[in-house]
Amino acid sequence: MSKVRFTEEFKLEAIKQITEHHRPVAEVSQRLGVSSHSLYAWVKRYGKSAQSGQQAGAEAVELRRLRAEVKRLTQERDILKKAAAYFAKESG
């Protein structure tokens, strides 16, 4: 009997059902036709990397947002500095 090879995408989707959707391993095992032993091994092997990949994506979005905000605030600060210098010169 030959071993069945599952794609990495299939494994990650199975892990997602267990970790994110909080489905029991036995249920996922039966539904997908994979042994529960294999699922536990996949969670151990890929679980953290699957979750960290999602976190990395969310962190990248947050980083872009924060950089845009820093740029906008820097521009506002520079405008206010110029305005303050202009009015200080006018009143002085």
UniProtKB/TrEMBL annotation:
<dbReference type="InterPro" id="IPR051839">
    <property type="entry name" value="RD_transcriptional_regulator"/>
</dbReference>
<dbReference type="GO" id="GO:0006313">
    <property type="term" value="P:DNA transposition"/>
</dbReference>
<dbReference type="GO" id="GO:0003677">
    <property type="term" value="F:DNA binding"/>
</dbReference>
<protein>
    <submittedName>
        <fullName>Transposase</fullName>
    </submittedName>
</protein>
<dbReference type="InterPro" id="IPR002514">
    <property type="entry name" value="Transposase_8"/>
</dbReference>
<feature type="coiled-coil region">
    <location>
        <begin position="56"/>
        <end position="83"/>
    </location>
</feature>
<keyword id="KW-0175">Coiled coil</keyword>
<dbReference type="GO" id="GO:0004803">
    <property type="term" value="F:transposase activity"/>
</dbReference>
<dbReference type="Pfam" id="PF01527">
    <property type="entry name" value="HTH_Tnp_1"/>
</dbReference>
<dbReference type="InterPro" id="IPR009057">
    <property type="entry name" value="Homeodomain-like_sf"/>
</dbReference>
